[in-house]
Amino acid sequence: MKKFITTIKNIFSIEELRGRIITTMLLLVIFRLGSYIVLPGLDTKQLAGGVSGGFFDMLNTFLGGAFSRASIFALGIMPYISASIVIQLLTVAVPYFQRMQKEGESGRKKINQITRVLTILITFVQASAYIAGTIPPEAIMIDRSFFIISSMIILTSGTIFCMWLGEKITDKGIGNGISMLIMIGIVSRFPGALIAEAVSRGSSLLLLFLLELIALFFVVMGVILLTQAVRKVPVQYAKQVAGAKNAPSKKPVVGQRSYLPLKINSAGVMPIIFAQSLMFIPSLVASAFQDTNDTANYIATTFADFTSWQYNLSFAILIILFTFFYTAITVNPKQIAEDMKRNGGFVPGVKPGEPTAEYIDNIVDRITFPAALFIAIVAIMPAFASMAGVSQEFSQFYGGTSLLIMVGVILDTLQQIESYLLMKHYEGLMQTGSVKGRQNVVVA
């Protein structure tokens, strides 16, 4: 405990780090306050129970309840994430975007500008769908046409403001701003879910509640292992000999050995997000025919229940498929092999160039399959927790996208804080002076 208090003192003794932390906290407070400002012209009493369903519940969790409150931040940063995913896919498939990506800083600025414009267009579409699909007509207290137009403008402005907040956190604060906004929305719902679960258990079932917390601890530890796990591929670099002073030496030239860290989970949370966005389609389509068709009624009922085995089996299969897909578009073995060859590096026992690319590709395939299985298990863990008697709101923290995002953002933020401590010659957050899982170059 004494070491922890000393570390906190060291963190706030660094002026730049202290300023970044305070800036981050202030911007996050602004984001949270905005999530409670309701769209003008609405009767909040008529909004209760306005949104429900797996996909809507996921959005509401990411946005800290702003989605269900019809807040000015009801769409939050999600349109920007959708636009970023579209642009990322275009950089793989469209040569024009590939050329921009290779242009360096100027290319990245162009891509960011296109992403912002696409975000505005997506926000307008999602804003109209949000108003039409989630806000009941009886909740609108003003002229409906005026309300729709004004709300679309306000929701779009709210998303642009959230995007600005995320960029400011990244530039002036600590951590990745966009991820931080999503994480704070998820974390904001955790205390209420925890208290509600404790109250529902009562003193007579206190032991059961403690067992739930222990199970949650081990689930979090497993997700941390998945997030930080890497497969280290040894890479040998020829030692650079400069000048003539080394020429008379008869000693053999010793190469420098380092490691190429290939993350076990290169896809991150994207497979779960993609799969989750598709899982509401069967029940949505079937609900249109359930009054006249028994099969459609069965599909609508089954896929509306996130604890059914049909839902979870389909969800797990989609996650596995999307894990391989997203890993394939984010990890480019040929590019890695070309960069290694250009820098004079090679994998011991493997020829540079195409053989190295095939070697790395085989490793990526072997580590992706267990990662995909683990991600699928993590994604369906909330269903098992709910079936075990945990409340639906608290069970969301036993896995799924929420837990993966929280763990990833917190670890990334801790690593950034630790880098400041080490630069100022303070002891790091861990006994070893480095957060577990950080990649250190090993020189032979």
What does this structure look like?
The chain is mainly alpha-helical and 444 residues long. The protein folds into 2 domains: 1-188, SecY subunit domain (Preprotein translocase SecY subunit), CATH 1.10.3370; 205-240 and 255-444, Preprotein translocase SecY subunit, CATH 1.10.3370. Helix content is 66%, strand content 4%. It has helices at residues 2-13, 15-34, 54-62, 78-93, 95-101, 105-134, 144-172, 177-187, 190-201, 206-228, 270-287, 294-304, 309-330, 333-342, 354-387, 392-395, 400-423; strands spanning 230-237, 256-263, 345-346. Strands 2-1-3 form a 3-stranded antiparallel beta sheet. Helix 4 packs across helix 6 (105-134) and helix 13 (309-330) runs antiparallel to helix 15. The longest helix is centred in the C-terminal third of the chain and has 34 residues, at 354-387. It is globular. Mean pLDDT is 79; it is low at 249-254 and 436-444.
Query: What is the average per-residue confidence, as pLDDT, rounded to a whole number?
Result: 79
- Helix fraction? 55-70%
Largest sheet: 3 strands, antiparallel
Strand order of the largest sheet: 2-1-3
**How many domains, in number, for the residues?**
2
Structure classification: mainly alpha
Gross CATH architecture of the largest domain: Orthogonal Bundle
Rough shape?
A: globular
Query: What's the CATH class label of the largest domain?
Result: Mainly Alpha
Using DSSP, what is the number of strands? 3
The number of helices is: 17
CATH topology of the largest domain: Preprotein translocase SecY subunit
The succession of helices and strands, N to C, reads HHHHHHHHHHEEHHHHEHHH
Runs in which pLDDT lies below 50 for 5 or more consecutive residues are 249-254, 436-444
What is the C-alpha radius of gyration, as a whole number of Å?
A: 25 Å
CATH homology-level superfamily of the largest domain? SecY subunit domain
The fraction of residues assigned to DSSP E strands is under 5%
